[in-house]
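anyone else get weird line breaks when pasting these?? whatever heres mine. first is seq + tokens for prot A
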Amino acid sequence: MVLRKSTGFLVHKSVKLLRKKVDTCLRRFDITVTQWGALRTLVEDGELSQAEISARLAMDRATCGTVLDKLIAKGLIEKKLSGNDRRSYCVKALPPGVALIEASGPEIEQISLLMLKGISEDEMKTLERMMNIMISNLSQEE
């Protein structure tokens, strides 16, 4: 198999190019793609535990903790001991974090539209279904 025709290589290359464009966009907000993903998850889903955030982002807990600590230092989120389990924390977005997601959203949407340019709605549904199958297949071994 030729590397440049390998599905894994093509997925990796597209993610790398997407990440580069999004990183460039987010630079003016002083936030990384990973931090933005965690923050957006909190803005969309509300208060979550660190374990829930790491699971939703397919990120290990230690890395997630580092990302959350950076967002706390920037005043974008807060982390409090859970009322139900004193061994875990509840994390939520603060108003400046919500404002950052709202301000950056249209630019990120434009990057998404650029990435999907030339792909029909039916093709997009097929791609989404196929990507979910690949994710499920690769998640089974964890």
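and prot B, same format (seq, then tokens)
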Amino acid sequence: MGAKILVIEDGADSWQLLSSILRAHQYQPLWAADGVQALSEARKHQPDAILLDLGLPGGDGFLILQRLKSNQLLQAIPVIIVTARDREMAEHKARRYGAAAFLPKPVKADTLIAAIRGVLGQHTGESSPHDSMAWVAMRKNQRIEGSMPIRYSGTMIAGEGTITDLSLSGSRIAGNVPVLAGMVLTLQLFVPGDPEPVLIDRATVQWAKESAFGVDFGALPPKTAARIAQAISTLITMQRDSSRQK
């Protein structure tokens, strides 16, 4: 089976429907019927994505979403809300609490799979981790020019700035605190529309000139690489939409 998807849903019929859709597309469904099980199963299995109903026994879905996003071990897992609640009332709050996508019930199979592929960075019809990482590798040398906020810190320094050029292998940064070539930095990338920054534990400064410097990310963990690849796609889409409006 492919990526693990935790379905947090108390209705047996809904679980059967969602799990059958997931299995048909080679995903591995896991089930939690309430808030307590949800956090336990998420910690135990570290799923690649979570489908979350908002109306649950033992804890409102928004509370579960908050707990997932406040847990350092779980906060990077994308959460897709799948609910019968009024979209106008619930979607804004869900997004504010960190949901990656919002789907109203009854959900269509193609809509659900498209949302999952979107949050996992799988823009093709393939759904296995191997194929997902092949797409990430394909993005390795693709760069996006733009402006994205960043915080950086190292030995005895801490600064803020903007990324002006980004790829999976590294980036060009304009900062307000000078750095030197050879320094190792920790970076926080703030992606538009994503409430959680992308954390890069180790980025080596390759060159520095005045306020600008370039870093190499080195060997990234798969989930971090996938989030950066998704950030590149997001920025490409934003630039494309901006160009159309001009």
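btw re prot B: The chain has a mean pLDDT of 82. The CA atoms of residues 1 and 127 lie 9 Å apart.
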